[in-house]
């Protein structure tokens, strides 16, 4: 008799577990199909601010002759899924295990509400960034805005994170390294960071993805806000030198040292 009793007990337990598991399985199935409040980000395009974008020079000058430059200064971007695109559990799981993808809260990426409102917000932030870049560059060069007029053109890019690269581009176009050479030293330099008129460099988002875009497009050096070193080092591509800066002067000095072959004078996120 003991054996049949154990068999009946196991069968009853199996039925109980099956009954209890059914709602869980159903919930998981619903969760897998339901849209989640996230966006998926990945490396976007880069633009050489010393060159042209969509047929127009990114930096145009009036009042001074613009220098012909070698090398590149590439501002970097990330691309995110739109606010109306459904992101599901499988997308989040897939992105979680990839270094070229990042899962971000939708509210953090689209804080302004609708897609149109967010687009307008990003355009306004880009305009402020361009104005601050012009002011920071002319302050650094001790030039008056009455003497030099700067026109910045960049299509289909929003937000303030190109400020540092805009500023460096203006300086290179007007003065180079101050000794007749290029600020880039002929290299392909990339980077990201906001800029204030006084030259302070501010934090931005998506730095690990931007380093991948930079390396993909030929950069050997990446300038970034110092506070974002830890994030950048996590998935930094091999062969890309991370140079942290707090102020515009830090970035200019680092580029001049690199151009002169004085690598020991260049800060590093590895230090």
UniProtKB/TrEMBL annotation:
Q: Gene3D superfamilies, per this entry?
A: 3.30.230.10
Q: What is its EC number?
A: 3.4.21.-
Q: Which UniProt keywords apply?
A: Hydrolase, Protease
A Gene Ontology molecular-function term?
Answer: peptidase activity
Please give the biological process terms from Gene Ontology that the record holds. proteolysis
Q: Where is the Lon proteolytic domain?
A: 159-252
Name this polypeptide is given: S16 family serine protease
Q: Which domain of life is it from?
A: Bacteria
Alphabetized Pfam families for the sequence: Lon_C
